[in-house]
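Form 7-S
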Amino acid sequence: MPRNLDITALRSFVAVADAKGVTKAASQLNLTQSAVSMQLKRLEESFGQDLLDRSGRQIALTVAGDQLLGYARKMVSMNDETWGRMTNQAFEGEINFGVPHDVIYPHVPRILQRFNAEYPRIRVQLHSLYTSRLRVQIGRGEMDLILATEEALDPGGETLATSPLVWSGAQGGQAWRHRPVRFASVSHCLFRRPAIEALEREGIPWENGIDSISDIAVEASVSADLAISVQLEASVPRSCEIIRHGGALPVLPEYQVNMYVCEGPRAVMAERLAAFVRQAYGASEVLAAE
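Output:
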């Protein structure tokens, strides 16, 4: 007799596999750890096989779990798409979502994918701009939802994550050892001034490593070991790495990834998208401005 798979359990399995742990997965799913663990146990019992290897510090997939993961992703995605098309057709229109380029990854692609599956008739226009520009545009009502990298939270916002600013350089690079240090950054980057001030405060001579308005050009120069730059710790490009300088470069401040939702005729749709953003960041308790 055919058995029916539990989509809720499969969703928990996929979340645990992606997060490599039950705690973070439970936060993303807005469930308790015990609820997620129970769903995984039932799933394993239904197959009569262990799906997760719990022997290490991080949860890993067994051979059976690795085989199931691809099927589970497809089934959860199909479930969400079907549910969206059958239940949310009343929601339609367009919303503008603004995100600084350095926090698009890793969360935004998955947020857009999940939102589109559940609300296929809402078109999300993604805009990649600097925080200062996004704050102006949402104030004018030109953006419905934005993420912003800021040192502090303004009224009406929510803090999703906090990340230190770090020095980044080429993988195995030596540019950070040179004096004057060659510093690469686009002129409108929010992190440029704090980085320069930190160098000057420590008496470290520096010079411009590139004159460009292109973030890609900056990344290319840094990855070629021609200069160093600064990034949020969670956003260092794969072609670069965090510089382990042992105190040879100054300590940099922490920044917050904040979210702002515009009030207006599209606020309800924007808030639906905001819920997906919170889940992606695992913000079980959002810090709201007073």
